[in-house]
Design a protein that fits this description.
With about 260 residues, the protein is an alpha/beta fold. It contains 7 helices and 7 strands, in the order βαβαβαβαβαβααβ. The protein is globular, with a radius of gyration of 18 Å.
């Protein structure tokens, strides 16, 4: 297999939650591989920064769409706006997500609902809106949903998050079965613990060192270590893959008892 199988030149990608963290990394990785990228989110300023990096660093077209994945009308309008700006996306990275940490007995309905609405229902809304355009256009495409190892394992204070991410994994499989007839591949990535700007100060503390003892590689992931998975699932290199969840976690989810 040549490196050309990972080339995304001429393709349009849409990345939700593209203003920071994993979403920004995914957007820049796709741009480096040749894609034009629409970044979406609720906060304009970080989206502006990501779009500037796409254009200035990689010379690719970029567009910004302010979109709330918890609102169907916002998602439908946002995906339509993305298609109008750069063309129907052939690649969708369904990354937007939140967390609300609380023990289940103390978690409020509002916090539980917010996590499910964003992390599970939002993934469905974006996939449905983009899938409709892909199917109507007859071009197919690749949808990559961002799950988590917490969709397969559990941790205290993260019941809603774990439930949502488990739902993302099963939703990915269900959509893959339904949409293969349209040439749409639906896969997922399940990251473990990764260093982002939000949690960078935590890693290296005694608490994080203790946590990393449960990871066979004894360290968190760095964002570029997700590049291989997202490029595989987004490109022709992954053409025979659908309904798959790729785990990228330093071995955390297979740690022995």
């Amino acid at each position: 297999m040549s490196n050309g199988r990972f080339d995304l030149t001429g393709r349009v990608a849409l990345v939700t939650g593209g203003g920071s963290g994993l979403g920004r990394q995914f957007a820049l990785t796709l741009a480096e591989a040749g894609a034009d990228v629409v970044v979406t989110g609720r906060r304009r300023a970080p989206l502006d920064d990501t779009a500037a990096m796409i254009s200035d660093t990689y010379g690719r077209r970029s567009a910004i769409v302010e979109m709330d994945v918890t609102d169907t009308a916002s998602v439908d309008a946002g995906v339509a706006a993305a298609a109008e700006a750069l063309g129907t996306p052939q690649i969708v990275i369904n990354n937007a997500g939140i967390s609300r940490e609380a023990f289940a007995l103390q978690m409020s309905d509002a916090d539980y609902d917010a996590v499910i609405e964003t992390n599970l229902n939002g993934v469905y809304r974006v996939a449905r809106a983009a899938g409709r355009l892909m199917a109507e256009g007859g071009q197919g495409g690749s949808i990559v949903n961002i799950a988590s190892i917490l969709g397969r394992r559990v941790a205290p204070m993260l019941a809603a998050y774990s439930a949502a991410k488990a739902g993302v994994i099963r939703l990915t499989e269900a959509l893959a079965v339904e949409w293969v007839r349209y040439g749409i591949r639906v896969n997922a990535i399940a990251p473990g613990f990764f260093v982002t700007d939000i949690n960078r100060d935590f890693f290296g503390t005694p608490q994080s060192d203790k946590m990393m003892q449960r990871v066979p590689m004894r360290r968190p992931g760095e964002l570029p270590e997700l590049d291989g998975a997202v490029l595989l699932l987004s490109s022709d290199a992954g053409n025979y893959m659908t309904g798959t969840t790729i785990t990228v976690d330093g071995g955390h989810s297979i740690q022995s008892m």
